[in-house]
Structures are given as C-alpha cells and as structure tokens.
Amino acid sequence: MGDSQQIMSKFNLLGYECTPAQAEILKKYMDFLVEYNKNVNLTAITDEEEIIVKHFVDSLGAVEDIPYGANHIDVGSGAGFPAVVLKIFRPDLKVTMVESNGKKVLFLEKLIELLGLEGIEAQKVRAEDVARGVNRAFYDSVSARAVTELNKLLEYTIPLIKVGGALYAYKGKSEEELQRAMGAVKKLKCEVVKNRTYTLDGQARSLIIIKKTGVTPLEYPRHNKKIISNPL
C-alpha cells in the first residue's frame, strides 16, 4: 500500500509537519485499518489519500490546543480518530478512548499494540456511564469527532472533565449547530472559547472549543434515551 513518504508529502502540502517516524507509524495504522475494515465496518473511507486527509490530517485539528500532559478522554473513538493520531503527535498526553461498540474496542486494542503506543487505552463503555461513576470530572480535556450534534455531545462530555477543562469538538460547518447548543452551554456551566473554521482539502471544517466554567449539575448527564429524545 502507500508509503510513508506519500503521507509526509500530503501532510506538508496541507501545512502540517510530519516526521519520518510519525509517517511510518501512520502507514502501519493505515494498512491495518484497510485490512481490518474488510471484516469489521470501521470506516467508509478506504482510499489511501482520503484516509491521510480525511482521517489523519483532520484528527490534528486540536493538536496544538490541548494542554501539555493532559489526562485526555476521547468519546466515541470508533477507528481511533482523533485519539490515536493525537497520541502519535502528542506523546505527552495520557489518552483514554471510550467506545460502546465491542468490535471497535477490540480493533483499538490491537492497533495500540501494533503501533507500540504507551499511555493510551480503549474502554468498552458509554460516556454517560463514565460520567456517572468514579471518573466524573476526572479528565483535563475531552475530544469527539463525528459523534452527534453539539447540544447532545455537550451533555455526554462536559461532566467528564474538571472545571477549567475543555471540550474539543471536531465539526464540519458549525454555525447553526453551535447556535442550537447555546442552551446546553448555559445549563452545563460552560462557555464557548473558540470556533475555528478552516478548509481542509476543499472541505469546510471547524474546531469548537468549549471551556467548563462551573461544576456540572448532578442531574447531568441524563440517561441516553433522554439525551437523544430531548436534548438540552
């Protein structure tokens, strides 16, 4: 399949640095993903160049924003985007991936071992269950990419982080979605710090950073069905 030089070239073309060592790890990641995807539905994107741009490069949206050494949690990790890519480029992070699909968790565990990554783990659990347990308000930062609408995502993620921590939400066009989420922002004691919009290979992208400013009321998160049927 594609070589590491192709990965480096594409990263550089799009304005991101990628070392030969990082590119080699990403090549292993891509090869394993494409092969594993033949039996387990992990991604609809299987073209190598699209994987590099739409998965790998896109995952770096928050790479310079997350605080150094953060105890970071990623919600709905799927095939490892953005969490695994962030770990490759930010080895200082301690990363927990939360994923409710057992087959995807198994893939993530095998991937971590294949890539030789330390300080990163995958858990088969729902985010709202973590937030109602001993790890409520435990993490410094949380990320989510292509999980759900922001008004629902906030209720899943904000209870997980400490006051002063932030959500890094990877989105496409985000203005209307952000407006719909302002009620949730208020109820969950947060503030919108940044909505960075940019274009990635012709596609509109945005990174929404929402800071937790107060203790999350104990009633949140509600049970999953209520979050979905009656979002804040």
Structure commentary:
The protein is 38% helix and 24% strand. It has 232 residues and is an alpha/beta fold. The protein has a 7-stranded mixed sheet with strand order 3-2-1-4-5-7-6, with helices on both faces. Helix 5 links the parallel strand 2 and strand 3 (120-124). Helix 1 crosses helix 2 and helix 2 packs antiparallel against helix 5.
Strand content: 15-25%
CATH class: Alpha Beta
CATH fold-type name? Rossmann fold
Order of strands across the main sheet: 3-2-1-4-5-7-6
Question: Cα-atom Rg, whole angstroms?
Answer: 17 Å
Low-confidence stretches: none
Shape: globular
SS elements, strand count: 7
Task: Please render the helix and strand layout as text.
Elements: H1 4-13, H2 20-36, H3 48-57, E1 71-75, H4 83-89, E2 94-99, H5 102-115, E3 120-124, H6 127-131, E4 139-145, H7 150-157, E5 161-171, H8 175-180, H9 182-187, E6 190-200, E7 203-212, H10 224-229
Parallel strand pairs: 1-2, 1-4, 2-3, 4-5
Antiparallel strand pairs: 5-7, 6-7
Concise overview:
The protein has 232 residues and is α/β, with parallel strands linked by helices. It has one domain: Rossmann fold.
Describe the structure using short key phrases.
232 residues, alpha/beta, Rossmann fold, 7-stranded mixed sheet, 7 strands
